[in-house]
Design a protein that fits this description.
The chain folds into 2 domains: 172 residues, HUPs (Rossmann fold); 94 residues, Pantoate-beta-alanine ligase, C-terminal domain (Pantoate--beta-alanine Ligase, Chain: A,domain 2), CATH 3.30.1300. The radius of gyration is 19 Å and the shape is globular. Strand 2, helix 2 and strand 3 form a beta-alpha-beta unit. The protein has a 6-stranded parallel beta sheet with strand order 1-4-3-2-5-6, with helices on both faces. The chain contains 11 helices and 9 strands. It has 281 residues and is an alpha/beta fold.
C-alpha cells in the first residue's frame, strides 16, 4: 500500500492508474478505523481496480474545539488495517496541505443542514462538504463510499454531488454493529467500560421506537417515550430522535408520510456524543 502525505504525488499516482483504464474508489475517513470502515474498503475493492482511503481529521467540521482535540488518532494501526484489507493507497495529509490559508468558503444546504445534526452542530456540514469537495477534486474517483451511520452526512454529500455535477457514483453502506447492537464508531474508543455498556441505549431506543411506530403509536408519543427511556438511564441523555424522509430529510409527524422513513437519534454517554439511525421498513 502506498502512503501519500502530499497532493501532487497522489494525483500523479492516480493519473497513471486512470491512464491504464483503472477505475478508482474513494473511502474518506478520519481514522480510528473499525470494521465498519473496512467494509467500505471491501465494497470499493469489489467494484474498482484501485481503492484510495483518506485519513484526515478535518478541523472545519468540528464546532467544538475540545471534540477535535480528543478525537482518536491511531494512524499506525489504521495503516496496518488498510494494508491487510488490500487498500491500494492512503492519503494522510497535514492541515497545511488541505488548508494553505484560512478557508472563506461556506456551504448552505437549506433545510438539509438545519435539522437534526445541523441544529446541534452549526457549521458542521459546511466543513464536511468543503473537505469532501477537496477530496473529490484531488482523487477524482469514479465511486465513493460512506457509512449509513452518518446518514444525514450522506444525504448532504448526495446533494453536493448533484448540485456541483461531480461525476461520481455514491454508495451508502449499511451500519455494522457490535454483538450487542452498538453502532461501530471511532468515538466508541473514548467510552470507558461502564459507558460502553450504557451506550447500547441508543440502539435499544431505535428498536423500541420502530416497534411503537409500526404498531400504531403516534410520532409525538413515541418521541416522548424514547426521551424518558434515555434520560432516566444514568450518564445518558438524548439530544433528539426524529423520523425523517430519507430523500429530502424532512422530519415527519406521521409514518405514512415521506419516502422510506428513517429514524435518527443522537445523544450523550458521559461526555461522548453518539449518533445512530434505523430505517422504519
Amino acid at each position: 500500500m502506498e502512503i501519500f502525505k502530499h497532493i501532487a504525488p497522489l494525483k500523479a499516482f492516480l493519473k497513471d492508474k486512470q491512464k491504464q483504464g483503472k477505475s478508482v474508489g474513494l473511502v474518506p475517513t478520519m481514522g480510528a478505523l473499525h470494521p465498519g470502515h473496512l467494509a467500505l474498503v471491501r465494497a470499493s475493492k469489489e467494484q474498482n481496480q484501485v481503492t484510495v482511503s483518506s485519513i484526515y481529521i478535518n478541523p472545519t467540521q468540528f464546532n467544538n474545539p475540545a471534540d477535535l482535540e480528543k478525537y482518536p488518532r491511531t494512524f499506525d494501526k489504521d495503516a496496518d488495517l488498510l494494508t491487510k484489507v488490500g487498500c491500494d493507497a492512503v492519503f494522510y495529509p497535514e492541515n497545511n496541505e488541505m488548508y494553505q490559508q484560512k478557508s472563506l468558503v461556506k456551504f448552505d444546504f437549506s433545510h438539509l443542514d438545519k435539522v437534526m445534526e445541523g441544529q446541534f452542530r452549526p457549521g458542521h456540514f459546511s466543513g464536511v462538504a468543503l473537505v469532501v469537495s477537496k477530496l473529490f477534486h484531488i482523487v477524482n474517483p469514479d465511486q465513493a463510499y460512506f457509512g449509513q451511520k452518518d446518514f444525514q452526512q450522506f444525504a448532504i454529500i448526495r446533494q453536493l454531488v448533484t448540485e456541483l455535477k461531480f461525476d461520481i457514483n455514491l454508495h451508502c453502506i449499511p451500519t455494522l454493529r457490535e454483538s450487542d447492537g452498538l453502532a461501530m464508531s471511532s468515538r466508541n474508543l473514548r467510552l470507558n467500560p461502564e459507558e460502553r455498556n450504557r451506550a447500547t441505549i441508543f440502539y435499544k431506543a431505535l428498536i423500541l421506537a420502530k416497534q411503537k411506530l409500526t404498531g400504531g403509536t403516534s410520532v409525538p408519543e413515541t418521541k416522548t417515550l424514547i426521551r424518558k427511556m434515555v434520560d432516566q438511564e444514568i450518564k445518558t441523555s438524548l439530544e433528539y430522535i426524529e423520523l425523517a424522509d430519507s430523500i429530502n430529510l424532512n422530519t415527519l409527524d406521521n409514518v405514512s408520510d415521506g419516502n422510506r422513513p428513517i429514524l435518527c437519534i443522537a445523544g450523550y454517554v458521559g461526555e461522548v456524543r453518539l449518533i445512530d439511525n434505523m430505517y422504519l421498513d
